[in-house]
Design brief:
Largest sheet: none
Helix content: 40-55%
Organism: Brassica carinata (Ethiopian mustard)
GO biological process, one term: proteolysis
Number of helices: 6
Subcellular location: Membrane
Distance between the termini: 68 Å
Strand content: under 5%
Protein name: RHOMBOID-like protein
Shape: elongated
Family: Belongs to the peptidase S54 family.
Structural class: mainly alpha
Number of strands: 0
Oligomer: single chain
Length: about 140
């Protein structure tokens, strides 16, 4: 017959056995808030709000694809493009844009923020369009 002996209990072991340690934060109006783990209330909020982040990410990707379509490197750069197999959506040569993206003239055409266009031509709309533009795939 085997006899197992438990190690002697310390004061900390005895104190923790009397009360259950839980990391919880009270939520106003929630009677079960005492039973929620510490990060539970945040995860519920994340599930509720992630659709908005997903929409913004999708819009950024679409804006980049449209910018690359307008760029049309294969036609505008005498076929000196990076990733030529992408056709119209191929990137400018790495010497021109090492971020794997469109040309500077495409940024100007698509609403990039340029001092002359903003101040002299009063194209204020560029302030709203420039945050949606990305210099390349790495920037995106």
């Amino acid at each position: 017959m085997e006899v197992t002996t438990e190690p002697p209990k310390t004061q900390i072991d005895e104190a923790s056995s009397h009360r259950k340690l839980s990391f919880s934060t009270p939520i106003a109006g929630d009677p079960s808030s005492e039973k929620l783990p510490f990060f539970r209330h945040r995860s519920r909020q994340i599930k509720r709000d992630t659709w908005l982040v997903s929409v913004f990410v999708l819009l950024q990707i679409v804006a980049f694809a449209v910018t690359m379509g307008v760029n049309d490197c294969s036609r505008n750069s005498n076929d000196h493009c990076a990733a030529r197999l992408l056709g119209r959506f191929s990137f400018q040569p790495l010497s021109e844009n090492p971020m794997l993206g469109p040309s500077a003239s495409t940024f100007e055409h698509m609403g990039g923020l340029y001092w002359n266009a903003l101040v002299e031509k009063h194209e204020i709309w560029r302030v709203l369009t420039s945050p949606w533009l990305h210099s390349g795939l790495f920037h995106l």
